[in-house]
Design goal:
The chain is an alpha/beta fold. The protein has five helices and five strands; from the N terminus they run H-E-H-E-H-E-H-E-H-E. It has a single domain, classed as DsrEFH-like (Hypothetical Protein Ychn, Chain: A). A five-stranded parallel sheet has the order 4-3-2-1-5, with helices on both faces. Helix 2 crosses helix 3.
């Protein structure tokens, strides 16, 4: 009976070691605030993504606990045009800009759609090299990628 207890203890210790090792490997490489980049290219998902970002901020206890970048390209840029944006888009964008989050519009998509930053809701900056390049740059800086 004593040997069985020793074996169970050894197995438990080994299991705990591997569990802890796996948890360490899955943990973000950076410490401090979580950094996340949201990727949006579908016009019809703009509101959904903004709601996701709001839920994300609430879920971590507020904007002081997360750094978020939203990178928009392709057809989704139309949802953020000042002339066409509805309050469900405008309100959250204003909140994100006030919180200091990056709102990046793909420079290639802007050129293809004949848009300038003046045509977009306030708070956007141009990702001159392109939206996907900006996403890759942010990921290289340790940002986690989310495409809802």
């Amino acid at each position: 009976m004593h040997r069985r207890n020793m074996l169970q203890a050894a197995i438990s210790t080994i299991g705990a070691f591997f569990t802890a090792s796996g948890a360490d490997a899955a943990a973000p490489a950076t410490t401090g605030k979580l950094r996340v980049v949201y990727h949006l290219s579908d016009f019809d998902r703009a509101n959904f993504v903004l709601v996701n970002i709001g839920n994300h901020v609430d879920g971590v206890g507020g904007p002081e606990n997360v750094t978020i970048a939203l990178v928009v390209h392709g057809p989704a840029l139309r949802a953020f045009q000042t002339s066409a944006a509805h309050p469900g888009i405008t309100g959250p964008v204003v909140q994100l800009a006030r919180a200091g989050y990056e709102l990046a519009a793909c420079g290639n998509s802007m050129r293809a759609q004949n848009l300038t930053l003046k045509d977009l809701l306030p708070g956007f900056v141009a990702a001159e090299k392109g939206g996907v390049v900006r996403i890759a740059e942010l990921q290289a800086q340790g940002y986690l990628y989310i495409r809802p």
